Amino acid sequence: MKSIFTLIALTFFFYSCDTNPNTEENIEPTTNYQEIGDSISTISQQTLLMNVGREIKSGGPVQAIDFCNLNASVLMDSLSKAHNVKISRVTSKPRNSSNTATNFELELLKSLESSDLMDTVVTHDKQVTYYKTIRLGMPTCLKCHGIPGTDISEETLDVVQLRYPKDNATGYHLGDFRGAWKIQFED
Fold this sequence. Notes:
alpha+beta, four-stranded antiparallel beta sheet, 5 helices, 4 strands, single chain
């Protein structure tokens, strides 16, 4: 009889003391910023390239430049709002001055360019930011970002210089490092 009471007491003890660290109240949610950032930057790049491609097909590089000048920022703002993040691009050779990398980002871009890293997540002052490399991956990109006089026609170059008087985004070859997508996560 004593052993039955001991068995009941032990059973009650083990069932009443939940020491499992994997219970719902003990699991802290974690956000995979790298996975989410990669997904959002991929969607952003596909959206931008699809629109630029449509404009090139419709009216050539000049029409694509006009589209970018008027609509690229609006498009990124719309995607930012949809994903509750701030989406932008940063580079050491901007066409649009709003894409100019900060001093910190210039160092980060150098690291990304000289390594095999495709992306990284940085936390600074409680701000989580994802960066993903941009390389010129299609010959079409060279029509606006390639070598003037070789890849870029005179007409296209004239429009680039008209729309972006401080342009630094030419002289690239296929596969060159162009900069990075920047996804800033909201708190």
